[in-house]
TrEMBL record:
This is DeoR/GlpR family DNA-binding transcription regulator. It holds the Pfam family HTH_DeoR. GO terms for molecular function: DNA binding; DNA-binding transcription factor activity. Residues 3-58 form the HTH deoR-type domain. The keyword Transcription regulation applies. The keyword GTP-binding does not apply.
Length: 259
């Protein structure tokens, strides 16, 4: 197992359990206790966990894995969701993409659509996510608009009043939201309030709103609300979503696409 894979596994275990002992982690990952101690020390230096005597605990109350350690979670579901979302976008539209692993997959699905291989522009993409802008900037047929703001290292998203300034001056056809939680009663949410504020503004500037989220995020709540469920036109999720969950979203006026 590579170091990055080991670190991702450690962080995911930590999120699930809240606390990990060295011996417990070593047994789980089938490596030596010395390796786990070294991993814990290095992750603590990056403020991704808090070192304790004999183990580690999560860093902060509202713990969130950085984007680079979340990419492998529910990967196949996210790719199916991304293709379905990309299919809902018409050539020539202006599309807003928030940050996140699923929206990054949406950007990749749009980039390989044959009918978007040319145009002037084939799509206008508005994003506050640095990684998405970086991936799409090499596509000359796409017009890329990046908001200003201060980069949030966990999600590569630009946040703050500089991003507000750009989004307040534009209108878009569709906003695609990546979320950490989406519930029919409590709406779409993020961990960070500044990130939620930018995502909310993107929704307000859009004619229609799509939430792209795997089923593990549905029926969940998070600290900062982005928008109520009634503001979302379509939820694209994976086939593991339950029928009762679908019914609740549909009663809230959200169309559900399960792939």
């Amino acid at each position: 197992m590579s170091r990055d894979a080991r670190w991702k596994a450690l962080l995911e275990l930590l999120v699930e359990r809240g606390r990990l002992d060295v011996e417990e982690a070593a047994a789980q990952l089938e490596v030596s206790a010395a390796t786990i101690r070294r991993d814990f020390d290095q992750l603590a230096e990056q403020q991704m966990l808090v070192r304790t005597r004999g183990g580690a605990v999560v860093h902060g109350v509202s713990y969130e894995l950085p984007l680079r350690y979340k990419t492998a979670r529910h990967a196949s579901e996210k790719q199916r969701i991304a293709k379905a979302v990309a299919d809902l976008i018409a050539p020539g539209e202006a599309v807003g993409l928030t940050g996140g692993t699923t929206t990054t997959e949406v950007a990749r699905a749009l980039a390989v659509r044959p009918d978007l291989a040319s145009g002037s522009p084939a799509l206008t993409v508005v994003t506050n996510a640095l990684n998405i802008a970086n991936e799409l900037a090499v596509r000359p047929q796409f017009k890329i608009v990046v908001t200003g703001g201060v980069a949030r290292p966990q999600s590569y998203e630009l946040i703050g009043p500089l991003a507000d300034g750009v989004l307040g001056q534009i209108t878009i056809d569709v906003a695609v939201l990546g979320v950490v939680a989406f519930d029919a009663t409590h709406g779409a949410a993020a961990h960070d309030e500044a990130e939620a504020a930018i995502n909310r503004l993107l929704c307000e500037r859009a004619e229609r709103v799509i939430v792209a989220a795997d089923s593990s995020k549905l029926g969940q709540r998070a600290f900062a609300r982005i928008c109520p469920a009634e503001s979302v036109d379509t939820l694209v999720t994976d086939a593991a979503v339950g029928s009762e969950m679908v019914r609740r979203f549909e009663e809230a006026g959200v169309g559900v696409v399960a792939v």
